[in-house]
Amino acid sequence: MRNELKSLFEPESIAIIGCSPDKKKIGGRPLDYLLKYGFLGSIFPVNPNYEIIEDMQCYETIMHVPSEIDLAIIALPQKLVLHTFLACIKKNVKSVVIFSAGFSELGEDGKKDQEQITALAKKHHIRVLGPNCLGLFNSSKRMYATFSTILENEEPLPKGKIGFVSQSGAFGSHVFTLARQHHIGFSHFVATGNESDIDVADCIEYLVHDDKTSVIACYLEGTKDGKKLINMFKLAAQKKKPIVLLKVGKSDVGMQAAMSHTGSMVGSDSVYDTIFKQYGVYRAETIDEFIDVANAFAQLPRMKGDRVAIFTVSGGVGIMLSDQVIENGLTLPETPKEVQRHLKSIIPIAGVKNPLDTTAQVSYMPTLLEDFMKAVLESGQYDAAIVFLGFSGLKPDSLATKLTSLMHMKQQFPDIPCVMVTLCNPEAKKLIHESGMVLNEDPTRAVKILSAVNELRKSKNHLEEMSADEGVRVPLDRINQFISYSSKKALTEFQSKQIVSHYKIPITVEQLALSPTEAVESANSIGYPVVLKGMSPQILHKTEKGLVQLNINSDQEVKDVFNHLKTIIQNEEEATFDGVLIQEMINDHSIEMYVGAKRDPIFGQMILVGLGGIFIEVFKDVSMRKAPVSPKVAKEMVEELKASQILKGFRGKTQYDVDSLCNLISQFSFVISMQEGVLEEVDLNPIMVFEGRKGVKVADALMKLS
Amino acid sequence: MRNELKSLFEPESIAIIGCSPDKKKIGGRPLDYLLKYGFLGSIFPVNPNYEIIEDMQCYETIMHVPSEIDLAIIALPQKLVLHTFLACIKKNVKSVVIFSAGFSELGEDGKKDQEQITALAKKHHIRVLGPNCLGLFNSSKRMYATFSTILENEEPLPKGKIGFVSQSGAFGSHVFTLARQHHIGFSHFVATGNESDIDVADCIEYLVHDDKTSVIACYLEGTKDGKKLINMFKLAAQKKKPIVLLKVGKSDVGMQAAMSHTGSMVGSDSVYDTIFKQYGVYRAETIDEFIDVANAFAQLPRMKGDRVAIFTVSGGVGIMLSDQVIENGLTLPETPKEVQRHLKSIIPIAGVKNPLDTTAQVSYMPTLLEDFMKAVLESGQYDAAIVFLGFSGLKPDSLATKLTSLMHMKQQFPDIPCVMVTLCNPEAKKLIHESGMVLNEDPTRAVKILSAVNELRKSKNHLEEMSADEGVRVPLDRINQFISYSSKKALTEFQSKQIVSHYKIPITVEQLALSPTEAVESANSIGYPVVLKGMSPQILHKTEKGLVQLNINSDQEVKDVFNHLKTIIQNEEEATFDGVLIQEMINDHSIEMYVGAKRDPIFGQMILVGLGGIFIEVFKDVSMRKAPVSPKVAKEMVEELKASQILKGFRGKTQYDVDSLCNLISQFSFVISMQEGVLEEVDLNPIMVFEGRKGVKVADALMKLS
After folding, report:
1. For position A68, what pLDDT does the model report?
2. The ATP-grasp domain covers which part of the protein (chains A, B) (predicted)?
């Protein structure tokens, strides 16, 4: 995979098919950029209408080029693309970028043409970026295979360590331009367009292995291949390359818009969100955050803990920052007492507890900022710093003094990430960037940056724990019984629980009775009181139909209720009677939980857990992961729930058997993963979780089949 | 009140005590600014060390000034302030700004001096701003009584309609400077410092009545007088002047920092938050949002509904904006079909459903943006618009064309607020500001702006409804029985419920029994089964002590349980036995709710509602208001709860008597308001809410006294 993409990202020879001498045209821009930025490989313009372009020989067709070609750019009208692509194959071109639009994004005809490109690419091992894409560039190779107008300016491009993959060319161009205003550069920029062949996951794989890239930034609308994307997330985590991602299409309206924009299916956003968290991908919510965090990951050292020191010239902003630091899951430990005394001796009116308020005196005492920072950071009690300097950035003298102090601190405490906050004009912004400091003009965004660096630390720990935890997989067989039901739409409670029970998941004591006599026998063997439930695979919600009868205490009652339940089912249209389930009546103190499985069309089996009953829906208190999960991750899921306070013994009340619940979740998650294609949806609801270490029992279950 | 503050905000004569010819000194800056910006009234420098400053006669003391003085600025060392203030009083100066620090913010001595100032100000009807304050300015009067360095620049100040009150000078200066970068101006800026006399509420009152101010922006750390602040919020709402407020001190650490910064008490942030919502004050969370929203309220027309049209040059950004519009409670209706057809006829590749994606073609077809906007807005289906133009702002030609289109649209649709989004350089920013368009560089912030304008619309409706609703107040007497208990710390359930019952709030059928015989009599008159509860004012949590016994079915059981409960209480140290409560056992289907009262030290009685039991604590699902509230507002409270889904009949299940619950909440809120000083905390928990229209009953209650 990697070698194939090398021809795209690091070509030594490029043919531009549809090349133009007009630098404003789509076929003219790549040549202009390649020449302007000094591409070191060979360039071959192709266009039958010209013999020479920019002093270079222009070829009639790709076949006429007297050399091997790593990358061909196709900048032609839609109707010429397929023909030209076939020529590229014939010429043994290794990879192709297709700028041309008019494919799957425009309807059925275009879709067919695109499918042909996909099939040909696969067959002939040629890699294709696009069609309908803005192209790509690779800064270190001075390789600019794009027609984006963002490179028209004469200004030099800032260098950068961020590799940027975007499913939208316009979005990518906007981000690129905004980043340039902040002097933030990219190692690579690639717009994947219609993704007939190369998709976002492929580009991530390339960037993970690229030395010039230390952070991967992604704009995503959706993916067709969830598993491939997850594998690349895992790879990035292994190689310690953080991914910052902005995914759109969260709301129904947004999802609709995304579907019509990409012309492809877009899965549930909450599943994407789960996947990102589970595999340590940082999800940004706004463009500002996207750039801020990508830049911070590229520039700042990693945090070792969550303790922040705030240095401020405004008490008010210090308070606001304190609030936001806490809200973002960071801590703000008080300055050690001896440091406080020392600082008070320098300037008595200062705030010295953290936030550290040097007051406006910072403008009259040039060493004040450095004195404060040094004393505080030297204590070893802090993992990060925010320095709020008001509008110092607008006053060159004031800025110079402070920047010098900050540079000293950066040298002295290279492992402590520090974000500088000040209002700036463009000159100041440039100066600060060149000093290597991470700058933001808004204090809240600075907190968000440290919060992201802290999340990175936590997800790194988390991923390490997860991989250490992988050995717990339980051996599972795939049972035939399971498959034989697959013609039906759903299984009854009895069948569903037989299956989970087969996989060592504890269920209520119960027997299926097909006659009143059998029912009485079962009731006596289980022991009174019992519960009777009418079984029919067509009736998914038994309670609503009166098919659950609690607290049955005698043989006669059992017989009567059996007949009653059978009648109810027989009176339902198209419902078949599968018998009556005789079940123990649970009276032990317990709490009802829900564990479920849902098959996502993109990412496969997801596992969910929450409080049983209506609370999961009312309070949306549910946690989700891609299955399977280890008991450790299951515990993490349970602890994410607000309801976990109840399980753990709220305010000194009863504690419930969380460990057994977590074992159940993990075991069940392996079951559903193994039956990937068979199960559409499973509800174990309720699961009775008993006190102390008394275990769990599945009291009801429902399996819907694919 | 208003006339007194006029001397401060609109003085015709200003004395500067401690005036200096050095423009960098605290006593020099106000003179510099007043002269530079052309103050039209009289200026009197006062300083015994000079005879002439800036060609003006300088007076030895304030007493030597040969004219009446509206405003005296005191820019002297702390130890001279009190003496000078007394001189000002003698001279009949109407108002004073005290720049000098060293008062309550620095400890006990300073606090005493400040208290003297407060007392003198009150006695002599002289108004005081400060001490420890940066001063104020009034743009339209060219009156600059401040030593802030923000006015040092020679640039002209942008004009503005925002009146800005800040409890922090440094915070205020920062906001002022940031706003100036965006060409946003202020009608007034006032920093209230230590608030010995004039506080934020006073300034709001002045600004509400000021013609030049259309929006009031506030930075707040806390207030000593909650009722005064509420009254000013109400006044602003009546006069339709929106307030945008940034309050800090949310987290415990932030609150600590705020207390040490202001030297005064800071109440619970959640109560402040409630007050802001209840009285229509928009709370901003970040400095960017604070400025964005204040500017939008000053510049944009009010929204008539929540329907937004998104115009974009990037499909991706369009999707992101769609998500964010929905997340912010706005709607995004699809473009009418005939408009879609029309737009497709102009440009077939466009997205025409909303978001409206003109694509990059907008750069090649100069009328495209206007064609799209006109067709869509003319449909009458939209209340607001966002126009995302990528980085057009960086290309002068492109910007000029688009700005012209937007200006046309603004003329044609003056009632539709429109936010323009594009990356800008400083020149473009200036140009756009001068055109009168509201601009933001970040699309997410643009959505937040429209969301704020929409909130303003909703809170306006809401406040109108509230005032229309004020007639429902129930006449209440203040009962003596209530007062007689006030020596105790808490009342028993029986006493508490007697009181609420006296105020027509329905409670369970119950009688207090002092002997086993009485208990049996009561049980028989109520009817079996009954509940027995042991009463002791020292035991607040009966269940934990085993003092609640359910489902008692016979005379003998009643006697036995009576004696058992009495023994439990007698065995508790320092607990007095107040009898046993015999109560009906409620078996009717019902849901348990919680209604409570908490006295906030700043704002007084607050009323809370939530689900009964532990859910209120586990899920933090509670809504709060300042008491009293009408049944209408009570309903709004209930509907804010996630649990309201259960009350209203979740998924077709039973509906409960919400109206009776709302009547109870309202009635109870008037009870607690009337007993303002007596009650510290009240829990009605649980309240049984019955099905359909079967009413409510308070099943347990606890009153803690102040």
Report:
1. 96
2. 497-533
Burial of residue A379, with CB atoms counted within 10 A of its CB: 0-12 exposed, 13-18 middle, 19 or more buried: middle
Mutating which of A150, A174, A361 best tests the B interface, going by the most B Cβ atoms within 10 A? Answer: A174
d(CA B289, CA B440): 11
Coil, strand or helix: which one is A367? coil
> pLDDT tens, A579-610?
999 999 998 889 999 999 999 989 999 999 99
Q: Do A261 and B351 touch (CB under 8 A)?
A: yes
Task: Report the alpha-carbon distance of residue A602 to residue A407 in Å, rounded.
Answer: 48
> Tell me, what DSSP letter sits at residue A109?
H
Which among A314, A426, A650 has the least Cβ separation from residue B618?
Answer: A650
Distance in angstroms (rounded) separating the CA atoms of residues B4 and B126: 8
How do residues B395-426 score in pLDDT, each as one tens digit? Answer: 999 999 999 999 999 999 999 999 999 999 99
- Counting other chains too, the contacts that A609-614 makes at CB distance below 8 Å and 24 or more residues apart are A609/A634, A609/A637, A609/A638, A609/A641, A609/A665, A610/A641, A610/A643, A611/A641, A611/A643, A611/A646, A612/A685, A612/A686, A612/A687, A613/A686, A614/B646, A614/B650, A614/B651
- The Cα–Cα gap between B385 and B409 comes to 11
- Name the CA radius of gyration of chain B, rounded: 32
Distance CA B209, CA B239 (A): 8
Instruction: Give every residue of chain A whose pLDDT is below 50, as ranges.
Output: 1, 471-472, 486
Interface contact flag, A248 B614, Cβ < 8 Å: no
**Tell me, what's the pLDDT at B615?**
78
> What average pLDDT does range B103-132 have in this prediction?
93
pLDDT, tens digit, for every residue of B32-57?
999 999 999 999 999 999 999 999 99
**Cα–Cα distance between A237 and A234 in angstroms, integer?**
5
**pTM assigned to the model:** 0.93
Percent of chain A with pLDDT over 90: 80
By Cβ distance, the residue of A618, A643, A646 closest to B643 is A618
Query: Which is nearest to B416 in space by CA: B550, B248, B303?
Result: B303
Give the H/E segment covering residue B113.
helix B108-124
Confidence of residue B472 (pLDDT cuts 50, 70, 90): very low
Cα angle for residues B22, B27, B31 (degrees, 5° grid)? 75
Per-residue pLDDT tens for B529-558?
A: 999 999 998 888 888 889 999 999 999 999
Q: Which distant-in-sequence residues (6+ apart) come within 8 Å of A94 by Cβ?
A: A4, A7, A8, A11, A69, A70, A71, A126, A127
- Which carries the bigger pLDDT value, residue B213 or residue B616? B213
Contacts of A59 (CB under 8 A, 6+ apart): A15, A44, A45, A46, A47, A65
CB within 8 Å: B442 and A313: no
